[in-house]
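[Discussion] Sanity-checking designs against the backbone

I'm trying to build intuition for which residues belong where. Below is a structure token string of 510 positions. I'd appreciate it if someone posts a full sequence so I can compare it with mine line by line.
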């Protein structure tokens, strides 16, 4: 057995067919095909693997493969798109042209799947990947069921479906989508993908918390003062104005990425590292987050929208405000920034504020968790000038520069007692002699393995919407702030900093 085949066996990889909907779209070109090709280069795709791309554009196998090669050169220039490896990989890709609502197209797809399966001995295994706009989800799911593609013809084979976010736009639509999925597929076949969960630092949260005895006893209300979760982007809407007008930052980032990270920070130790055990604990956290009254929405949430400003990316660049972006209404009240103070009403976290904020066109790109520990008693250091003694802080950097740092206090060299914070730093890029792979690679492999640990379950999605939907409804009835209320290239609206200060003071007050 070769090293690659041994690793494939260790991962539990079986032969399978990867059926890609939205095969000519941006997500396919930027993320999915580069991830699949890189997995092939690493020898991590199962034997007999093949790809069928299903889309409406008038292409054949040769022209479609050429388009993918061009996309690799543009979006993944580090991969050898012009070498023998790509040509060998591309030979496993075929194209089926059809409208997404054409029943005959799915019949052609079924016959083509059967042919490829027979040629490559794929044992009836197939993974359907929906990389389409959400408005196409229902028709694809329905046609897969009508064509009988939701069940393998081989009794030992499997069929699974991967569906991209957003999983609905509110609680009712999420429930409707889950009902449509469950009418065709079993929950064990459904993989709702959130690429943040494939990032190394996000996965490392469980290890850091539960494999290190110096941290787990401290993750509770007795030692932690407050937690800040930030998802900041320097980019604007990047041509997605029409989509973003319907979503806003809360639906696009907070309901999924932000709350997923929060649950991993706050969850109890699972019984085991199985998909359902992990997701059971995450759902408990979501159900424990205190729901806001309309009055609390006004007090504990902040909305923002960027105006024209300057972004620094090696050089200063003047950028338009959100209302000047293509596809955006000139008087739009869609939020491009949102901040929330959440409270978790359970034994571990009662009284500890969790601040979650996300925004576009901010000063720098970063996603991180800052865990502030309660300050040490100042009795010993009372004679020191105010502000010298700072609380410990654990920072988990999800992107960029993935890793973690712990802030501790240290005496500075010299004859007098002066204290300043210092960082104990861990960086993935330098700690391990292996490259950090794209999150999609890990998630695609897990879907092929049938490991749903890093994918959202139906009740998890609905629990998140049960928290967020009333906030969105309350915002509809509350007078909107005067937009824009922060310039592009800043740290967001001043009201967000006031929310943080007010929330920490309210928590610390007797």
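Best answer:
Here's mine. Compare freely.
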């Amino acid at each position: 057995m070769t090293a690659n085949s041994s690793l494939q066996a260790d991962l539990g990889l079986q032969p399978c067919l990867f059926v890609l909907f939205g095969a000519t779209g941006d997500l396919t070109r930027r993320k999915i095909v580069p991830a699949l090709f890189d997995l092939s280069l690493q020898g991590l795709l199962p034997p007999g693997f093949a790809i069928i791309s299903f889309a409406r554009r008038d292409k054949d196998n040769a022209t479609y493969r050429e388009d993918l090669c061009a996309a690799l050169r543009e979006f993944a220039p580090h991969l050898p798109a012009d070498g023998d490896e790509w040509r060998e990989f591309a030979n496993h890709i075929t194209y089926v042209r059809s409208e997404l609502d054409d029943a005959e197209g799915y019949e052609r797809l079924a016959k083509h799947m059967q042919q490829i399966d027979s040629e490559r001995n794929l044992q009836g295994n197939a993974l359907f990947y929906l990389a389409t706009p959400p408005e196409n989800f229902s028709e694809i799911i329905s046609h897969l069921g009508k064509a009988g593609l939701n069940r393998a013809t081989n009794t030992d084979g499997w069929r699974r479906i991967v569906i991209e976010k957003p999983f609905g736009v509110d609680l009712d639509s999420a429930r409707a989508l889950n009902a449509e999925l469950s009418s065709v597929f079993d929950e064990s076949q459904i993989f709702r993908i959130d690429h943040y969960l494939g990032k190394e630092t996000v996965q490392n949260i469980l290890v850091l918390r539960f494999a290190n005895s110096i941290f787990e006893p401290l993750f509770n209300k007795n030692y932690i003062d407050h937690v800040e979760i930030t998802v900041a982007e320097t980019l604007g809407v990047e041509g997605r104005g029409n989509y973003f007008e319907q979503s806003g930052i809360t639906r696009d980032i907070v309901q999924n990425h932000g709350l997923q990270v929060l649950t991993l920070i706050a969850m109890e130790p699972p019984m085991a590292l199985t998909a359902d055990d992990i997701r059971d604990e995450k759902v408990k956290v979501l159900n424990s987050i205190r729901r806001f009254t309309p009055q609390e929405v006004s007090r504990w949430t902040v909305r923002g929208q960027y105006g024209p400003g300057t972004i620094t990316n090696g050089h200063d660049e003047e950028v338009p405000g959100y209302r000047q972006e293509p596809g955006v209404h000139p008087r739009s009240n869609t939020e491009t920034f949102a901040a929330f103070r959440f409270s978790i009403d359970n034994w571990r976290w009662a009284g500890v504020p969790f601040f979650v904020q996300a925004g576009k066109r901010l000063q720098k790109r970063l996603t991180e968790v800052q865990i502030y520990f309660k300050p040490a008693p100042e009795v010993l250091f009372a004679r020191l000038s105010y502000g010298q003694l700072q609380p410990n802080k654990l920072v988990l950097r999800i992107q960029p520069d993935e890793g973690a740092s712990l802030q501790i206090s240290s005496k500075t060299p010299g004859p007098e007692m002066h204290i300043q914070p210092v960082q104990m730093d861990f960086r993935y890029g330098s700690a391990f002699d292996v490259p950090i792979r794209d999150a999609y690679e890990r998630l695609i492999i897990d879907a092929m393995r049938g490991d749903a640990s890093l994918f959202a379950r139906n009740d998890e999605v609905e629990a998140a919407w049960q928290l967020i939907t009333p906030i969105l409804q309350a915002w509809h009835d509350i007078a909107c702030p005067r937009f824009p209320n922060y310039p592009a290239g800043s740290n967001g609206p001043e009201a967000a900093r006031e929310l943080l200060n007010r929330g920490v003071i309210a928590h610390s007050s007797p």
